[in-house]
Amino acid sequence: MSREPDVSVVVAVYNTMPYLTRCLNSLVRQTIGRDRLEVVAVDDGSTDGSGRELDRFARLHPETVKVIHQENSGGPAVPSNRALAHVTGRYVFFVGADDYLGPEALERLVRAADEYDSDVVLGRAVGVNSRNIHQAIFARNEVEVDLFDSALPWSLANTKLFRRELIERHQLRYPEDMPVGSDQPFTLEACFRAKRISVLADYDFYHAVRRLNARNITYRSRHVERLRCAESIMDFVAGLIEPGERRDAILVRHFTWEVARLLEDDFRELDRAVQEQVVAGVRQLAERYLTDRIRAQLPIESRLRIGTAWRGDVDDVLAVVRQDAEQGVPPTIVDGERWYAGYPGFRDPRLELPDDWFDVSGAAADWLARLEAVSVDWETCADGERALTVTARTPRRDLASLTSGPIGMTAGDVTGTTLETSRDGTGSTVRAQFRVGLLLGGATGAGGSLLPVRSQLTAFGGVGSAALRAPTRPAVSRFMLRRGMRFFVLTPTTSHRGQLVIAIAPVTPRRVLARLRRRLPQGGK
Q1: 3-class DSSP state of 90
Q2: What's the pLDDT tens digit per position in 67-108?
Q3: Cis peptide before 18 (omega within 30 of 0)
Q4: Which among 238, 251, 139, 152 has a CA at the least distance from the CA of 194?
Q5: Distance between CA 101 and CA 161 in Å, rounded?
Q6: Cα distance between residue 8 and residue 64, in whole Å
Q7: Which pLDDT score is estimated for 510?
Q8: DSSP 337-390
Q9: Which residue has the higher pLDDT, 278 or 448?
Q10: Angle CA(65)–CA(205)–CA(126) in degrees, nearest 5?
Q11: Mean pLDDT across the chain
Q12: In whole angstroms, what is the distance from residue 5 CA to residue 88 CA?
């Protein structure tokens, strides 16, 4: 290829059929035109026909698509680095082989980078098949955002447009010893070195697909691998950024996300030896990097689980995890004007955990709003429309008397109808209902949405809100409905944090017919 393309798209591929076909089609059909585009795809030892599909596209578009085949390396870092050695475009864009781009994505991104003289440009990413994508950075178009004073640290995936001169000047490459998360050090340093970072939020540039079989490396990675990658990422941050407020602005994301996820509810199910290894690793990270500034920004569950791993042992961590996962909202301990969350370990002389780790006084309304889902049911309204009814509990018998307005629930941007607020000898009950039509209207992504369910109330002069915990996955079936010519499936389920969410996913007519055939007797009779 003698010409210099405007943009080179890097695709690291390992066993991604049939998703790969849509990905490649979305690239060669970009409005920027194939004469301004180069696709460099590296087949990392695929065994499912992905390599043959890449070769087919290379035959169809020999001036645009380059394919490199290699033995499996165990992760995306090696194929990504190999592709970087072959790209020739002014800009480089990385796309996951499961995912696909909006038709105008590259044209818009390159135009913005040229107009703003940006080294990095983020285009809004949306989830498909109810994949959750952090959206805070995409609140609005921004000509320039600051790495340390924005939501950018929460969006460190490599799915961005990078100026190739920046990559080569600083020899940016993926760490090849990280099977998971190797794009984060690359992206972080690129953003750290960039003279300007821009955000485009007015178009669905990137469609991030959650595979229906959930078999890619991120979904199936294990705790020990994730611990090792968290250690690598945080050590990289420490080597790149001096101690202080700027480093903390990055590390708070990693403590909240990578480290806290090691101590989620599924920690209970690990082998004892793995639990010991995880706790030891979290303890070391806390000793090295957990400052008071970071700790104050952590949600209380993460703050106490990480803090208990730092000061205690596996059994101490398990006690805190089980409080949330099995026993529900902990009691509130009132001492003078201070409110404390009554988690295991509070004022335990053996652990010597500071009181302020348990202090919820500054967020008393949010703490009061913490409820636990005890049942989720589909019901039929008086007008015949289906609705999802959520019943939640709190051990506080005085919930209603402490609030100064209605107590309700939301699912994403949808406000439910409160059916009941009552109390008994063991606490208070709140019951709210969500009509399916409103839920479907609250699904913003074309590929589906996850609507987190939250409780909401007014107390102590402010509005309190908290994610609704669901210690067990709701024992309720999915609900399929038709809107015009499209079908959707609504599924009440739980997130990895044990919180109630409503997943809304579009269903193609072909999948609907296949589902009906499976239910019919053989021969269709």
Answers
A1: coil
A2: 999 999 999 999 999 999 999 999 999 999 999 999 999 999
A3: yes
A4: 152
A5: 12
A6: 9
A7: 55
A8: TEEEE--TTTT-TTT---GGGTB-GGGHHHHHT--EEEEEEEEE-TTS-EEEEE
A9: 278
A10: 120
A11: 91
A12: 7
- Please name every residue paired with 65 in a beta bridge, in sequence order, or none if there are none: 39
Answer yes or no: are the C-beta atoms of 49 and 17 closer than 8 Å: yes
Contact 398, 331 (CB under 8 A): no
The total number of residues shown for the chain amounts to: 525
Letter string b/e over residues 458-478, b meaning 16 or more CB atoms within 10 A of that residue's CB: bbbeeebebbbbbbeebeeee
Strand order in the sheet with 197-200: 65-70, 37-44, 7-13, 91-94, 161-163, 120-123, 197-200
pLDDT bin (cut points 50, 70, 90) of residue 443 is low
Q: How far is residue 424 from each of residues 327, 393, 398, 459, measured CA to CA in Å?
A: 18, 11, 10, 21
Residue 101 pairs with which residues in a beta bridge?
206
Q: What are phi and psi for residue 451, nearest 5 degrees?
A: -105, 105
Strand partners, 422: 429
CA dihedral (5, 9, 13, 17) in degrees, to 10, reads -100
Which is it for the CA torsion 61, 62, 66, 72, positive or negative?
positive
R_g of the chain, CA atoms, integer Å: 25
